[in-house]
Design brief:
By secondary structure, the protein is of the alpha/beta class. Helix content is about 40%, strand content about 15%.
């Protein structure tokens, strides 16, 4: 992999990859691309009261990738038409979610298990919509697919025939989570398949991104050593635990550091959770938690506040010495204000946990 080309992407995560979450990541310098949480094509077309929140693209609309999920060609194509007029980088088709309810509905990884002709028709329909949108004067949108290796009975031949079909239909990027449909996170991902896929498409204008089990600098370097021809790394749960992880990874991955701490977007305020003193730079974990709760109130409907707070703090609290205790407190919080009280009470009891040294940040 040539120097300075490794892109860092924030993964699509249900109930997490929304504007409030992006607003706690971006002041640390952000990442190269933010994938939205799965947008259900059928639900989007009904124009229900909550759908507008899935289409919010702040604070950096130019970094957005719209991820669509669904089980019908017609609804996915129609949803692609809607989001293609909203700007951003592109549209991503979810073929990797293996949650039982998603798979059984015919969405997610089910598209890798259907007759190939059916999946081919769907992808072609979405690509035609994106091309038509560009012809009508909207921005040209990249088509990408996030996928796994397939079902348990996948073979190298079946996998590469499948991706070749997708490439022939206009897919320009593959984000590969190299596990099978049933493999859980306790099993190490097969990063070597990312390298094989990258080499398979080398020189053809198709990018390949590695997804899975990257949680810190050491694992990021190990991933890139295994897949040196990958164009980037997509990070999911580790970004929830550590919203600053993209800044943390920039130096070891030889990315430029000129944009750390509110440098990429001049409209973003300075990060309130970064504390600088003569002893160095630290992250104020209490302030960052408050910042997320504030953003939830501004950029998510009140009906979503509790569940999205619970999901975020289930990961974020792993930074704390007594993680299970505070996770339980945050899970049982009655509302946003109670969440603030629980968080403040924890740091009153364990003040040494509040500031996390962050030598990789520059103020």
């Amino acid at each position: 992999m040539p120097e300075n080309t490794c892109k860092l992407l924030c993964a699509p995560m249900a109930t997490l990859s929304h504007e409030a979450f992006r607003r706690v990541i971006e002041p640390f310098g952000g990442c190269d691309e933010y994938y939205t949480e799965m947008i259900n094509a059928g639900s989007l077309l009904t124009r229900g009261p909550f759908e507008k929140y899935y289409l919010m693209n702040g604070p950096v609309p130019e970094k957005i990738v719209w991820q669509l999920t669904g089980n019908k060609t017609e609804s996915l194509a129609a949803a692609a038409k809607i989001v293609s007029g909203l700007g951003g980088i592109g549209v991503d088709l979810n073929m990797g979610c293996s949650a039982p309810e998603i798979y059984k509905s015919g969405a997610g990884i089910a598209w890798m298990c259907k007759p190939q002709e059916e999946t081919q028709t769907m992808v072609r329909s979405v690509k035609n919509i994106l091309d038509q949108s560009a012809h009508e004067g909207h921005k040209t949108m990249r088509l990408s697919v996030k996928l796994r290796l397939g079902d348990e009975n996948y073979t190298d031949d079946s996998f590469f025939r499948f991706v070749d079909m997708l490439a022939c239909e206009g897919v320009e990027r593959f984000v590969l989570h190299p596990r099978t449909k049933k493999e859980k996170y306790s099993r190490p991902p097969k990063w070597e398949y990312v390298e094989r896929l990258a080499l398979h498409f080398w020189g053809r204008g198709i990018s390949v991104v590695l997804n899975g089990a990257v949680k810190d600098a050491a694992s990021a370097l190990a991933a890139m050593e295994t897949a040196p021809h990958a164009d980037g790394i997509m990070i999911a749960r580790a970004a929830v635990q550590k919203p600053w992880i993209f800044a943390e990874l920039q130096y070891p991955l030889k990315k430029t550091q000129e944009t750390i701490v509110a440098g990429r977007n001049p409209d973003m305020p300075a990060c309130r959770s970064i504390i600088s003193s003569h002893t160095g730079t630290a992250i104020d974990l209490l302030q960052l938690g408050f910042d997320y709760l504030d953003a939830l109130e501004l950029y998510q409907p009140v009906e979503f506040w509790k569940t999205r707070a619970q999901r975020f703090f289930a990961y974020y609290c792993n930074n704390f010495s007594f993680a299970h205790y505070i996770q339980t407190q945050m899970l049982n919080a009655a509302d946003i204000e109670d969440s603030r009280r629980c968080l403040a009470a924890y740091f009153d009891k364990v003040p040494e946990d509040r500031y996390l040294p962050a030598p990789f940040l520059f103020s």
